[in-house]
Amino acid sequence: MLNVPFHHPAWIEVDLRQFKKNLALIQDHIGHSKKICLVVKANAYGHGLVPVAKAALAAKVDYLAVSCLQEGILLRHANINIPVLVLGAIHVEQIPELIKYDLEFTVASHYKAKLVSEVCAQLKKTAKVHLEVDTGMNRTGVRLETAPAVLKFIQANSYFQLIGVYSHLAIADMPGHDFTSNQIKKFTHFIEMYGLNKTVICHLANSAGVTFFSASHLDMVRPGLLAFGYYPSRDMPKKLLDIKPCFSIRAKVSYFKTVLQGAGISYNHTYIAPKDTHILTIPIGYGDGLRRNLSNKAAVLLNGKRYPIVGAICMDQCMVDIGSDSGYVGDVVTIIGTDKNSAIKIEEHSDLCATNVYEILCGFNNRLPRAYHTEAGIVWWQAENCHEL
Ligand SMILES: *Cc1c(COP(=O)(O)O)cnc(C)c1O
Predict the structure, then answer these.
(1) pLDDT for 225-260, tens place per residue?
(2) Which whole-number Å values give the CA distances from 62 to 221, 299, 341, in the listed order?
(3) DSSP string, 165-221
């Protein structure tokens, strides 16, 4: 493991070969005539925005989606020049830079459409936009009743290039549910009624839509989670079972000590050694994204064997009880991932924290350097500063 930035003793590993495989499997599943818009918001779900975007580029995805202006600018600064769609609601102050960086963005109200056209008039520039309609998510998006008026305004106004129309599925991870079929019906009815299916990119499917609702695939799909190897639901179609996670976390043991029976470990002594035992200190904590809720619950792997995290997880360190086994400073511990024949899945963390995989993944931040496994070997990457997401 040469060239570890700052020789930092804890890191994320991302297997970009598996990630590209996942993209290829998604493309096979939806068919080769349809576009993929890979969602890389929130630092590519914790996998690292720029390296993931570059791998996606190499895998020939058509589009990238981010949530906000600053994520889009980071992609442009990294010389990523394919279309990028900003999904979140935009603010008037952001319009000049959205245009300057050639970011496509979402218009989801008449009010915003007017603001965009005013700013464009001042700048003498056009904006590339996607109209978002709401078919049941009730987050952002023009209601279907008012969408025709906004569409008309955009189509009649020379400051707009209408590139796409989209909507977002709310509960597509429940495969049998009518609500999703209903959302698909409402959306397809809208695009057909206004002839949009022939003129602009119509898109609707998130990972769950990609997986369970082929009628939602339309011209382009917008998977995030699935591309990173996680399933939107436990009952996955067989065809997609080769999609696998590509994310691991490892750290080097930083300290070893023997403690006596009855000794309390870490803040507030929430763990008391039941017998004389060996305790390892691991240099990763909630300051890196290892959730404090996992204290006395989660485990790590050392030499293929599971050991419990004991006592409160600290900001930068946590402790592991290895009983009478031995462990040495510098040994590599796996916090998430596989080691020999054992594995710790990220779902263990999300279940123990009563949350979803998304939140655990994007909680791992940029203090951890990232090692990318590529066809050409391991490439390390460290965000230069906290602004470089
Ligand atoms: C986050 C997001 C996605 C991707 O969702 P996944 O469940 O990760 O596939 C797609 N579309 C929109 C509008 C989103 O906000």
Answers:
(1) 999 999 998 889 999 999 999 999 999 999 999 999
(2) 10, 39, 37
(3) EE---SSTTSTT-HHHHHHHHHHHHHHHHTTHHHHSEEE---HHHHHH-GGG-SSEE
Residue 349 in contact with ligand 1 by CB distance below 6 A: no
Q: Which residues are catalytic?
A: 41, 267
Q: Distance, CA 228 to ligand 1 centroid (Å)?
A: 12
| Residue 140 CA to ligand 1 centre (angstroms) | 13
Report the nearest-CA residue for atom 10 of ligand 1. 206
Per-residue pLDDT tens digits for 340-387 = 999 999 999 999 999 999 999 999 999 999 999 999 999 999 876 433
pTM score of the predicted model: 0.96
Which residue of 39, 166, 169, 228 sits with most ligand 1 atoms within 8 Å of its CB, as the best mutation to test the pocket?
A: 39
345: helix, coil or strand? Answer: coil
Q: What contacts 122, CB < 8 A, 6 or more positions away?
A: none
CA of 219 to the centre of ligand 1 (A): 16
**Pocket of ligand 1 contains residue 207 by CB under 6 Å:** yes
Look up residue 88 and give its two tokens: 């979140």
In Å, how far from its chain's centre is CA 74?
Answer: 16
Those residues with Cβ within 8 angstroms of residue 238's Cβ, 6 or more apart along the chain or in another chain: none
Counting every residue, how long is the chain? 389
